[in-house]
Amino acid sequence: MSHALELAKVAGDAGEIPVGAVITDASGNLIAEGENRKERDQDPTAHAEIVALRAATRILQTWRLHECTLYVTLEPCPMCAGAIIQARLGKLVYGVDDTKTGAIRTVLNIPDSAASNHRLQVIGGILESACRQHLQNWFINRRLQNK
């Protein structure tokens, strides 16, 4: 999660909403990473999770990531939650709940819904304080710059 937080800082410095994600294999080895790139790529799907999932599937040469763990600094949105389910991800670990668009436990619960064909192990609240503080500071600074 610490590496995901570093990637979030890179994204924030580039003007993106500061979210970072990493994927590890069954042995805990880092195999892929991603950071928000919507603005830089002009791609509405370029969320950190999607970027990391795409990289992992290219590296592993399979779309099935059942032995992998995704670490992300912010609770995934509905699009990312759907992609995580479709990838058959083994475990999701996230930092802070997203009270506006969180689709894992906060606003929606896509993994446990009838629409999910995969049961996902979820752990929330890892480095929660650091993840929350980083997001809050970024938004405060962004608002100050726009005044």
TrEMBL record:
Active site location: 49 (proton donor)
Cofactors required: Zn(2+)
Catalytic activity: adenosine(34) in tRNA + H2O + H(+) = inosine(34) in tRNA + NH4(+)
Stored InterPro entries: APOBEC/CMP_deaminase_Zn-bd (IPR016192), CMP_dCMP_dom (IPR002125), Cytidine_deaminase-like (IPR016193), MafB19-deam (IPR058535), tRNA_aden_deaminase (IPR028883)
Molecular function per GO: tRNA-specific adenosine-34 deaminase activity; zinc ion binding
Sequence ranges assigned to domain CMP/dCMP-type deaminase in this UniProt record: 1-107
Binding residue positions for Zn(2+): 47, 77, 80
Keyword Metal-binding: yes
Keywords, alphabetical: Hydrolase, Metal-binding, tRNA processing, Zinc
Cofactor descriptive note: Binds 1 zinc ion per subunit.
GO annotation, biological process: tRNA wobble adenosine to inosine editing
EC numbers on record: 3.5.4.33
Broad EC category: hydrolase
Pfam families per UniProt: MafB19-deam
Protein purpose: Catalyzes the deamination of adenosine to inosine at the wobble position 34 of tRNA(Arg2).
PANTHER family assigned: CYTOSINE DEAMINASE FAMILY MEMBER (PTHR11079), TRNA-SPECIFIC ADENOSINE DEAMINASE (PTHR11079:SF202)
Sequence similarity: Belongs to the cytidine and deoxycytidylate deaminase family. ADAT2 subfamily.
HAMAP family membership: tRNA_aden_deaminase (MF_00972)
Subunit structure of this chain's protein: Homodimer.
Name of this chain's protein: tRNA-specific adenosine deaminase
Species in which this protein is naturally found: Trichormus variabilis (strain ATCC 29413 / PCC 7937)
